[in-house]
């Protein structure tokens, strides 16, 4: 038994060692990603449920490393733990706001551009000031930009996130609460958050129809309740993860405002997004 334990212990530590090395490799590569131009933003359309018009776009970060894309769910947590999220977040803001300004100069009715913010970005003071400064540099009206935050900004130990959010909102930027329903006590936080919009997480949309083993009636009851509550608070609702016509049909019946999902399109490079979804002036 002892030999076996020793062997499995050895095996385990080798596995940990491998994980650690992979993680350190990832970290080192990520440190260079901005300088080497390996980061890109792709854009996913946000569509009106009632008339199918593309009224928004969400900027989603892509890291092309060694010829393949590393998903944001893999590297953003690393960026957050190491503090690199500040440099990456600044790059995202610079790139997205410049893109929104180009769209506004070139296309007839450019979509509002939604940008994801990590809760960590609020740990540095001056986030709101920096964003407003960028808008002024590009002469971009604040309502052209929506910021997506998660309710975890409120349980962050540091930084007056709520004050920064109020400044941004008062300045005219739009704010959306992302991943709604997946976090903590959403309802009590909601009253204090100066947001315009809720995004229903895709984990609530998938079971509405199709392959899931969950009861679609229960899923529908939850989504319907979220939409009713949002509307009674004068918030609009975006559903993400709309993959099928059945999902969309259900959301139509529920009075959902906007959707995003593979049914229409995944996130695309800026050029492809413009070719497919934007009308020249
Ligand atoms: P999120 O903000 O909740 O973004 C929605 C995710 O759902 C995106 O994954 C999007 O590509 C994916 N998605 C959209 N429609 C569908 C669909 O119909 N089916 C399925 N299965 N998925 C769909 P992505 O791009 O891999 O991003 C993952 C997460 O990484 C995002 O979740 C967000 O939390 C984070 N992220 C992405 N870009 C940024 C960024 O610029 N800054 C920060 N801080 N986080 C980002
Ligand atoms: Ca988002
Ligand atoms: Ca989500
Ligand atoms: Ca998320």
TrEMBL record:
Taxonomically, the superkingdom here is: Bacteria
Where the record annotates domain EAL, the positions are 23-281
Q: What is this protein called?
A: EAL domain-containing protein
Write down the species.
Answer: Zoogloea oleivorans
Q: Which residues of the full protein are shown?
A: 357 to 637 of 637
């Amino acid at each position: 038994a002892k030999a076996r334990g020793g062997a499995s212990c050895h095996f385990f530590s080798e596995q940990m060692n491998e994980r650690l090395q992979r993680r350190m490799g990832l970290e080192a590569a990520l440190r260079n990603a901005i300088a080497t131009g390996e980061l890109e933003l792709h854009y996913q359309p946000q569509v009106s449920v009632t008339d199918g018009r593309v009224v928004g776009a969400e900027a989603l970060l892509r890291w092309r490393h060694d010829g393949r894309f590393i998903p944001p769910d893999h590297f953003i947590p690393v960026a957050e733990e190491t503090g690199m999220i500040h440099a990456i977040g600044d790059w995202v803001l610079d790139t997205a706001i410049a893109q929104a300004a180009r769209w506004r100069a070139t296309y007839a009715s450019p979509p509002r551009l939604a940008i994801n913010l990590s809760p960590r970005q609020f740990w540095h003071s001056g986030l709101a000031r920096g964003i407003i400064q960028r808008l002024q540099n590009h002469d971009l009206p604040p309502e052209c930009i929506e910021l997506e935050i998660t309710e975890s900004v409120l349980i962050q130990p540091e930084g007056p996130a709520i004050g920064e959010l109020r400044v941004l909102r008062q300045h005219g930027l739009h704010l959306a609460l992302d991943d709604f329903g997946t976090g903590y006590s959403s309802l009590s936080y909601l009253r204090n958050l100066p947001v315009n919009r809720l995004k229903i997480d895709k984990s609530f949309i998938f079971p509405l129809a199709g392959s899931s083993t969950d009861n679609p009636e229960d899923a529908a009851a939850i989504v319907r309740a979220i939409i009713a509550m949002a509307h009674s608070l004068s918030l609009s609702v975006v559903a993400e993860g709309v993959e099928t016509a059945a999902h969309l049909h259900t959301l139509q019946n529920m009075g959902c405002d906007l959707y995003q999902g593979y049914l229409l399109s995944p996130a695309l490079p800026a050029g492809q997004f413009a070719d497919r979804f934007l009308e020249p002036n």
